[in-house]
Design goal:
The chain has about 300 residues and is of the alpha+beta class. It has helices at about 1-15, 35-130, 135-165, 175-190, 205-225, 260-275; strands spanning about 20-25, 30-35, 190-200, 230-235, 245-250, 275-280, 290-295. Among the domains are: about 1-35, no CATH class; about 170-295, 2-Layer Sandwich (Heat Shock Protein 90), CATH 3.30.565. The protein is elongated, with a radius of gyration of 47 Å.
């Protein structure tokens, strides 16, 4: 039965052209046929098709996995970007609040050093005038006249402060020109002041120029208020290609406290924010020198 089925299958393969020969035993009876080249070619084509299909499935799976990973990475980056934007908005808000607090502190320092000084002096002059008015009319009138003069100076200080708030003191002026105007005010107050610009003047950032101007303004304001000096010097030095130096010095009474008041604290804060340096050299009776160095 098995032999009959085998022969039948062989006959079918012969009929389909898949066998080229048959084996026989010594008695001449036919045995199992040998496969033809077409049979092996068919097997090879089927195997090749299977391999290609398997490779396509693997490739498609890898592409799908990579696409899913890429989508997940994009979503992760988008989430990080949203978080960064949120933090940036918070930082901007904090910076605005810090700028507001800083400006309030600056105004407080200017009011303390400016109007506070004038009001204190006016109050002392009025008290002195009231104390001597009954027995020395001329001395009392003199004290009141001094109080009036101080009140006028205080009013002028208020106007200067308002003008400074409305616009930058360096608008339409170079830094040497603006510092030169401050020197002229000191000279008009009776202090012989030299002004020397060294090196080639170059353009600086608005922040650097404003910091140097405010430092010069503070130094010369303190000079007029407290130094009791007869001579002074102001130097604006551009000789260093990486920094600009400012020196404001006088020959006045000096000070035992090199830290200064609120005004010098403000100068230090402004200069340090720009990576600069502030030094004060003073000895009682030997004058006061303010040195500022700002990168630029």
């Amino acid at each position: 039965m098995v032999l009959t089925v085998s022969l039948h299958l062989a006959a079918m393969m012969v009929g389909h052209g898949l066998l080229i020969d048959e084996a026989t035993d010594p008695s001449g009876e036919r045995l199992y046929p040998f496969p033809s080249p077409d049979f092996w070619m068919g097997m090879l084509q089927g195997a090749l098709q299977y391999v290609l299909a398997f490779a396509f499935v693997i490739l498609f799976t890898r592409v799908a996995v990579r696409e899913r990973e890429a989508r997940a990475e994009v979503e992760h980056l988008a989430a990080e970007l949203r978080e960064a934007n949120r933090q940036l908005r918070e930082y901007v808000t904090q910076a605005e609040e810090l700028a507001t607090v800083t400006e309030r502190n600056r105004l407080a320092r200017e009011i303390h050093d400016g109007l506070g000084h004038y009001f204190t002096a006016i109050n002392m002059q009025i008290q002195a005038g009231r104390a001597v008015l009954e027995y020395d009319l001329s001395l009392g009138i003199d004290a009141l006249a001094k109080a009036q003069g101080l009140a006028q100076e205080g009013l002028a200080e208020v106007r200067r402060s308002v003008a400074a708030l409305r616009s930058s003191p360096l608008d339409n002026r170079s830094l040497p020109e603006a510092v030169g105007d401050l020197v002229d005010e000191v000279r008009a107050a009776g202090i012989a002041t030299s002004f020397d610009v060294r090196g080639e003047v170059r353009s600086l950032s608005p922040q650097v120029e404003l910091a140097l101007y405010r430092a010069a303004q503070e130094g010369m304001t303190n000079m007029c208020k407290h130094a009791q000096a007869s001579n002074a010097e102001v130097v604006l030095d551009y000789s260093d290609a990486s920094a600009v130096r400012l020196v404001v010095g006088d020959s006045g009474v000096g000070s035992a406290d090199p830290t200064g008041g609120y005004g010098l604290i403000g100068v230090r804060e402004r200069v340090h924010l720009l990576g600069g340096e502030v030094h004060v050299e003073t000895v009682p009776g030997e004058g006061f020198v303010l040195k500022v160095k700002v990168p630029g």
